[in-house]
Design a protein that fits this description.
This protein is an alpha/beta fold. The protein folds into 3 domains: 166 residues, Ribosomal Protein S5, domain 2; 240 residues, 3-Layer(aba) Sandwich (Rossmann fold); 71 residues, no CATH class. Helices cover 37% and strands 17% of the residues. The protein contains 21 helices and 18 strands. The strands form 6 sheets. Strands 11-14-17-10-18 form a 5-stranded parallel beta sheet. Strands 1-2-4-3 form a 4-stranded mixed beta sheet. The longest helix has 18 residues. The radius of gyration is 27 Å and the shape is elongated. It binds zinc ion (ZN). The site of zinc ion (ZN) has 8 residues, from loops.
Length: 507
C-alpha cells in the first residue's frame, strides 16, 4: 500500500486547525473514498479532484484510493481541501515527490479544468498554519495577496494544479494561464468616507452621534423621513478611531471568511459599516449557508457600526437574533457537524420614524395614526433591544435648521481625546469604552455625591427611570465628562445625559 500525506486547514468559525490529509492507495478495484467528517461540499471534492487531475495531463491512479482527513472529530467544510486532496493522492502514486509535500499546507478549490480557484477564509487559515509551525503554504494566485498579509507565512501562489505538481517534480506540461487581474482596491476602508460637514442642522442628533462615538454607546435616532438619519448613521464610522492591530486582523478575518475582503488594500483598519435592509432575513443578519458558514451583517459589522434603518419594520425574528451578540459580542451558528462562532461586537444604530405615518413631530397634529398603532410601532423595539441603547435622540423637521455643522475631522479629534481619557480610567479593567462598563462599577465611582445623583434618584422615585436606566444615564454622563475634559461627571453632565436618553422629553 502506498501513502501520500500533506496538510490543509479546517476553519471552525475564525479558528483554523491544521488538518492532515492522507491518501492510501491500494492495489484493488479502482475507487475513491473520502473519510473524516466531510460535509456535502467537501464530498463533491472527489469529482472535482479526479476531473482536475485528468484535465491537467496527470494520470489518475488506477487503485483503490482512500483519503482521510484527520483529526476526524474536527468538522470540515467547503471546497478549500481540493488542492490538498489532489496533492496527497499524487504523492501516494509517487507522481510528485512525497517527501516534499508532507510539511506544506495546501489551500484552494480545483476547477474541473485543473485551475486553482480562490477560497474564502485564506487569512485566518494561513494565520493558523503559521501559528501551528507550518509556515509554508500554497494558495490560489487570486488569494496570494491575502495570504501574504500574515507575518511569517512563506507563500507560494499557483494558477493551476499542473503548476503545483511540476514544482514537486511531476513531469507535466504547465499550461499558460492568465494571472488573476489585480484591479484597483475596492476595499471598503479605502473608499473615501462621507463627511459630517455634509449634514445640515440637527444639532441634537449630531451631539448624540458624537457621544455615541466617544463612549461606544448604542444609539436610537427618531425623526420624520428625510431628516438625515441615514446620512448621520453613515458618518459614525468616520468618527471612530482606527482599529488596533488585533482588531484589524480579526475584522479582516471575518471579511475574508465572508468573501467581502479585497486584500490589495491590506488589512482593514477602519471600523466597518453594515446597513442591512429591513426586509433582511435572520440568516443574512446572523450568518449561515452551506459549507463554510458565511458571517452575516452583524459579524461583518464587528468593531464597527450595524445600522438598522426603519428599525421597527425589521421582522421580530431578526431583532431577536441581535440579543445574543449585544450580550456576548459573538454569534454562535449551530451546524449539523458542530458550531461555528463569529465575533459580532458592533455599535448598534437604530433609526425610526416617530410613528407609522411619520408625521408625529412636535405636537403631532398632522399624524393620522391611532395611539394604539403608535404604541405597537415602538413596542417592536422595546425590551431587550432598547434596554441596551444608551442614547435616544429626536431629529427635528429638516426645515427648522439648515446651518452646516462641524466636519468629521473636528469631531473625530474630540472623540479621540475623549476615548483616550476613558481608556486611561478603564486601564486594567476588561472594558474599553464607557458603554461596556457595568452599573455597580459606575455607581461606586460616583461615591456618595448625593447632589449629583439627586436628579436620578427623583426619576427613580417617580418611576420614570429604572435602575438599569440610571446606569445608562451614568455611562453617558461619564462620556460627556470625557468629552469635556472633566475628571468626573458633574450635575450638568447627568442632566444632559438624561435628555439624550429620553428623546428630549425630560425624564
Ligand atoms: Zn403618525
Amino acid at each position: 500500500m502506498a501513502l501520500g500525506r500533506t496538510l490543509g486547514v479546517a476553519l471552525v468559525g475564525l479558528a483554523g486547525h491544521v488538518v492532515e490529509v492522507e491518501a492510501h492507495l491500494a492495489a484493488s478495484i479502482p475507487a475513491f473514498a473520502l473519510v473524516g467528517l466531510p460535509d456535502a461540499a467537501l464530498a463533491e471534492s472527489r469529482d472535482r479532484v479526479r476531473a482536475a487531475v485528468s484535465s491537467s495531463g496527470l494520470s489518475w491512479p488506477q487503485r483503490r484510493i482512500t483519503v482521510n482527513l484527520s483529526p476526524a472529530s474536527l468538522p470540515k467544510s467547503g471546497s478549500g481541501f481540493d488542492l490538498a486532496i489532489a496533492v496527497a493522492t499524487l504523492a501516494g502514486a509517487e507522481v510528485v515527490d512525497p517527501s516534499r509535500v508532507e510539511q506544506v499546507v495546501h489551500l484552494g478549490e480545483l476547477g474541473l479544468d485543473g485551475r486553482l480557484r480562490p477560497v474564502r477564509g485564506v487569512l485566518p487559515a494561513v494565520a493558523a498554519a503559521v501559528a501551528a509551525g507550518r509556515p509554508r503554504v500554497v494558495v490560489p494566485a487570486a488569494n496570494a495577496a491575502e495570504a501574504r498579509l500574515v507575518p511569517g507565512a512563506e507563500v507560494a501562489a499557483a494558477l493551476t494544479l499542473a503548476q503545483v505538481a511540476a514544482w514537486y517534480g511531476a513531469e507535466v506540461e504547465v499550461p499558460d494561464v492568465e494571472p488573476p487581474a489585480q484591479g484597483p482596491s475596492a476595499s471598503p476602508a479605502e473608499r473615501s468616507a462621507p463627511d459630517l460637514a455634509d449634514v445640515l442642522g440637527q444639532p441634537e442628533a449630531r451631539r448624540g452621534l458624537e457621544v455615541a462615538a466617544a463612549g461606544g454607546h448604542h444609539l436610537l435616532m427618531v425623526g420624520p423621513p428625510g431628516t438625515g438619519k441615514t446620512l448621520l448613521a453613515a458618518r459614525l464610522p468616520g468618527l471612530l478611531p482606527d482599529l488596533d492591530e488585533t482588531d484589524a486582523v480579526e475584522v479582516t478575518a471575518v471579511h475574508s471568511v465572508a468573501g467581502t475582503f479585497d486584500a490589495t488594500g491590506g488589512l482593514l483598519r477602519r471600523p466597518p459599516f453594515e446597513d442591512p435592509h429591513h426586509t433582511a432575513t435572520p440568516a443574512s443578519v446572523v450568518g449561515g449557508g452551506s459549507g463554510l458558514p458565511r458571517p452575516g451583517a452583524a459579524s461583518r459589522a464587528h468593531r464597527g457600526v450595524l445600522f438598522l434603518d426603519e428599525a421597527p419594520e425589521f421582522s421580530p425574528s431578526v431583532l431577536e437574533t441581535l440579543r445574543q451578540p449585544l450580550e456576548n459580542g459573538e454569534l454562535v451558528l449551530h451546524r449539523a457537524n458542530g458550531t461555528a462562532r463569529y465575533p459580532a461586537r458592533f455599535q448598534l444604530v437604530l433609526a425610526a420614524n416617530p410613528c407609522p405615518c411619520g408625521r408625529a413631530v412636535g405636537k403631532g397634529l398632522d399624524c393620522t395614526c391611532r395611539s394604539e398603532q403608535r404604541r405597537r410601532y415602538f413596542g417592536k423595539l422595546s425590551g431587550p433591544l432598547l434596554d441596551r441603547v444608551d442614547l435616544q435622540v429626536e431629529l427635528e423637521d429638516a426645515r427648522s435648521a439648515a446651518l452646516p455643522g462641524e466636519s468629521t475631522a473636528v469631531v473625530a479629534a474630540r472623540v479621540a481625546q475623549a476615548r483616550a481619557a476613558g481608556a486611561e480610567r478603564l486601564a486594567g479593567t476588561p472594558w474599553r469604552t464607557n458603554a461596556e462598563v457595568p452599573g455597580p462599577w459606575l455607581r461606586e465611582r460616583l461615591g456618595a455625591d448625593r447632589a449629583l445623583v439627586g436628579d436620578l434618584d427623583r426619576a427613580l422615585d417617580r418611576g420614570t427611570l429604572s435602575l438599569r436606566g440610571v446606569d445608562r444615564v451614568l455611562r453617558v454622563a461619564w462620556t460627556l465628562a470625557d468629552l469635556g475634559g472633566r475628571p468626573a461627571p458633574r450635575r450638568a453632565d447627568v442632566g444632559l445625559a438624561l435628555l439624550l436618553r429620553t428623546r428630549g422629553q425630560g425624564a
